[in-house]
Design a protein that fits this description.
Blueprint: H1 5-42, H2 45-52, H3 56-69, H4 77-98, H5 102-143, H6 148-164, H7 168-179, H8 184-191, H9 196-204, H10 212-225, H11 228-240, H12 248-276, H13 287-291, H14 295-298, H15 302-333, H16 347-364, H17 371-397, H18 400-403, H19 410-435
């Protein structure tokens, strides 16, 4: 019996060791699942905000780039990817570290005068983009034979009712799903059989023209890719989701994934329109021409496919943009806010929202208005006003009292300030070329 005891003890040790290994494995598995759940809980602001640039104005701008300049502006997407990712990441980081929205921080750090100036710039920019979204609704439904004088008022009333009186979140998901139709540009780009060798060369070969038309398009591309409202939106979204500095690394991943994905869609939109429109010398003056780039995939149904995607993207942004603007302005000046509030309780909040919806719908219905031109012009307005927002963001994110150890590093600051300076110079050139067109 005594000779068997060592064996019994060894067996006992082995059982305990295996049990401990099992517990350790289980703990690692649980930790992995927690990390995965944490990622899915935090993911969203970066992807959604970056994709928001591919709305009605974005589609019109990128389609015009491919139709008018072929593959010559593909190179711009590389620095734009870096700039968009950096700007979005700075605002997301501020939201996670401070737990406050951009409007709040501007009021606290710069005072009421600066806040009023920045909010005015934001109101102008967002007002322009809201007009472009209703123009997108009009263009989409005109493809299906519905006049803008019918479609726009109904859409405006529906959006106002959904936000003020209904549950917008459910409908938002439907519109978001509809806007995913634009993924068809990826397939269409391959089916159009573009000269991929030329695409590769133009992607890394910078091309620039000092002409009024080129500068206008150049600034429009920047304006629709790095829109001022996107900075406000992503910071507020991060705060709303409760992201904190300790788990911010997941949001950083989300920001860069969203940025790369959004720019890839732009890449294929430009290729599709260049391969189908530019080669035939066609320009994008209407939604029907923009839809023609989907012909290799959808054939006779290209118009319908484009109309569905454009309508979904436009309706989504036409609701979100005025709402985000109303929140920002109310937050900046301490006014009562909330969609569940009445006009008596939150007159400024609901007044700003209603004003932007009415403005967007009214301008989009103006007779003789080129809807595609409106879409592009609003993106230029975005590009001109963008430096104001970028300067404010850079001042805040480099404030050690506010951000502590989470301020920008040297490389981030170089890239961010370079973006701000380039956009500012281009904006000035656009203004000069517009006022003194005979010089360009």
């Amino acid at each position: 019996m005594n000779e068997q005891r060592p064996d019994v003890r060894n067996v006992g040790r082995r059982i305990l060791r295996r049990s401990a290994e099992g517990v350790s494995t289980m703990r690692r598995s649980v930790a992995r699942r927690r990390n995965l759940f944490a990622y899915f809980a935090i993911i969203g602001p970066g992807v959604i905000t970056a994709a928001a640039g591919n709305d009605a104005g974005g589609i019109a701008t990128f389609a015009s780039v491919g139709a008018d300049y072929g593959y010559k502006l593909l190179w711009l997407l590389i620095p734009l990817t870096i700039s968009l990712g950096i700007v979005q990441e700075m605002c997301a980081r501020m939201g996670a570290v401070t737990g406050k929205g951009l409007s709040d921080l501007i009021r606290e750090r710069f005072g009421v005068r600066w806040t009023a100036f920045v909010m005015l710039a934001l109101l102008i920019a967002n007002g322009g983009v809201t007009v472009s979204e209703f123009a997108g609704i009009a263009a989409a439904l005109e493809l299906l034979g519905v006049a803008r004088y019918i479609s726009v008022p109904i859409a405006a009333a529906a959006i106002w009712w959904l936000v003020v009186k209904g549950t917008y979140q459910r409908v938002e998901r439907v519109f978001l799903a509809m806007s995913l139709v634009f993924l068809a540009y990826v397939v269409s780009a391959f089916l159009a059989h573009p000269p991929w060798a030329m695409v590769a060369v133009e992607t890394v070969h910078p091309h620039f023209e000092l002409t009024s038309a080129f500068l206008f398009t150049f600034v429009a591309v920047i304006g629709t890719t790095i829109s001022p409202y996107m900075q406000v939106f992503i910071q507020s979204s991060v705060v709303e989701k409760g992201v904190r500095a300790e788990n911010y690394y997941l949001t950083r991943i989300d920001v860069w994934i969203g940025t790369v994905f959004a720019i890839l869609i732009v890449f294929f939109i430009v290729i599709s329109t260049a391969a189908t429109l530019n080669v035939h010398g066609e320009h994008v003056d209407s939604a029907a021409q923009a839809a023609a780039a989907l012909a290799p995939l959808a054939g006779p149904y290209a118009k319908m496919l484009f109309a569905i995607g454009l309508f979904g993207a436009s309706m989504l942004a036409a609701g979100v943009l005025p709402l985000a603007t109303a929140y920002s302005i109310s937050e900046a000046f301490g006014f009562e806010k909330g969609v569940s509030s009445s006009f008596r309780e939150a007159p400024i909040f609901l007044g700003v929202f209603t004003f932007l919806v009415v403005l967007g719908a009214t301008v989009a219905m103006m007779p003789g208005l080129s809807l595609i031109h409106v879409l592009i012009v609003t993106q230029v307005i975005n590009g001109v006003l963008l430096p104001i927002i970028l300067i404010v963001v850079l001042k805040l994110v480099n404030n050690r009292e506010l951000m502590g150890a989470h301020v920008n590093g040297p490389l981030y600051n170089i890239a961010a300030w370079l973006t701000t300076i380039i956009v500012s110079v281009l904006s000035i050139l656009v203004i000069i070329s517009t006022l003194f067109s005979n010089l360009f």
